[in-house]
Specification:
The protein is of the alpha/beta class. The protein contains 14 helices and eleven strands. The protein has an eight-stranded mixed beta sheet with strand order 6-5-7-4-8-9-10-11, with helices on both faces. Strands 1-3-2 form a three-stranded antiparallel beta sheet.
Length: about 400
């Protein structure tokens, strides 16, 4: 396998260089943008660097290439007693004694290198069947932090839907096919639905610390009150942070809706009963560490008393995919119905959204894109989300 890098002012230029030098069978492994250094770097447009690979048939004669490795001790004995370790100077003796350790280290290095090469060859084999017009979309998914296995699954489905006689002439058609396929991997979108014939719909917001639960509740309460004309009440259980309770109280006063601060499960039951004629009751919980059993047990007590209609887990897209999935699994012990992803304005890639919902199989309720209340919250559209995932470098 031969791997080389090519740099040009745009993707097509770099791809043209790669095809010219390495042939049409070259496979794109990675694409990135490069910006020149120096004080005047802003005057120059960024360049595109692509890494490509091509297979070559290697016939290795192991007997011919193998070189004999002699042990230092054996070589010493062959030279006779006068050349023994006892007769050598201390420095030479130390080098001879440490040679086996150095050899083991080199062998381990070679083993790790071979493993890395094997993994790379396996990756090349996986993407070998991907046509050139589809490969850029695969790279875009990877650059947007979509898991490699998931990206391959998406692109393989795209590839299977391409006409066999496709010449790659219609680039827009291929892009539309990619968009449609990504949409299929997005679980349904399901915002809060308030029945017209019911009062006192109870919505719990849960999640780890720092994801923006309080601000999200303020946005939802304001929009439902002002835009939908709903009668809304707020309850906060976040008594650990005085600032959080005060923040939500300030929002409630501005919006003109009632709020109660609750300290224990018994008081929560009374507050819910007090607001039972409201259209919707939002409950803001304290940020919990999903890895501390006592925090989750305390939250479970509130959930059991309240028996909410919906429990929505709030997650930040700035968190790694594996951590997002682990957090969900911990909170799902209390029951999670939907997900809200926050802080899209603080990230340049949104593949973590796709990775998470693909694994947990829960619908998305809302996305938040900033701190402004009541703005910066929206019900996502699957097509728009697919476009975000297929746009190079992400971005809103």
């Amino acid at each position: 396998m031969i791997i080389k890098k090519f740099i040009a002012k745009d993707f097509q230029g770099a791809l043209k260089q790669a095809k010219k030098e390495m042939g049409s069978d070259a496979i794109i492994l990675h694409t990135s943008k490069l910006r020149r250094g120096g004080i005047l770097s802003f005057l120059f447009a960024p360049q595109v660097e692509i890494t490509v690979a091509v297979d070559e048939k290697l016939q290795v004669n192991s007997d011919r290439l193998r070189k004999p490795v002699s042990s230092p001790v054996v070589a010493t004995e062959a030279n006779g007693p006068e050349s023994s370790l006892q007769d050598r100077d201390p420095g030479e003796k130390t080098r001879a004694q440490t040679a086996p350790g150095e050899l083991l280290q080199e062998l381990q290095t070679m083993k790790n290198l071979m493993k890395e090469v094997k993994n790379k060859i396996s990756e090349v084999e996986q993407i070998k069947g991907i046509s050139q017009e589809v490969q850029p979309f695969y790279e875009t998914l990877l650059n947007n932090q979509v898991d490699k296995e998931l990206a391959l699954s998406i692109i393989s489905r795209v590839e299977s839907r391409l006409p066999r006689d496709s010449k790659g002439d219609d680039e827009l058609w291929v892009r539309d096919l990619c968009l449609h396929t990504v949409q299929e991997y997005i679980k349904e979108i399901r915002p809060i639905d308030l029945p017209w014939d019911r009062k006192g719909v109870l919505v719990f917001m849960v999640g780890p610390t720092g994801v923006g639960k309080t601000t999200t509740i303020a946005k939802l309460a304001a929009n439902m009150s002002f835009l939908e004309g709903k009668d809304v009440a707020l309850i906060t259980l976040d008594t650990y942070r005085v600032s959080a309770a005060q923040q939500l109280r300030t929002f409630a006063e501005i919006i003109g809706i009632p709020i109660s601060v609750v300290f224990n499960p018994q008081d929560l039951g009374a507050a819910i009963h007090h607001y039972q004629e409201k259209d919707v009751i939002f409950v803001d919980t304290a940020g919990r560490s999903p890895y501390k059993d006592e925090h989750m047990e305390e939250l479970q007590e509130f959930i059991e008393v309240a028996n909410p209609d919906e429990t929505i887990l709030v997650l930040s897209v700035t968190t790694d995919s594996s951590d997002l999935i682990n957090i969900y699994q911990k909170f799902n012990h209390i029951g999670v119905d939907k997900i809200i992803f926050t802080k899209l304005d603080e990230s340049y890639s949104y593949g973590r959204i796709l990775n998470t919902i693909y694994h947990i199989r829960k619908p998305i309720a809302y996305l938040t894109t900033g701190q402004n209340v009541p703005d910066d919250i929206e019900v996502p559209d699957t097509l728009d989300l697919a476009r975000m995932l297929l746009r190079e470098g992400g971005g809103l």
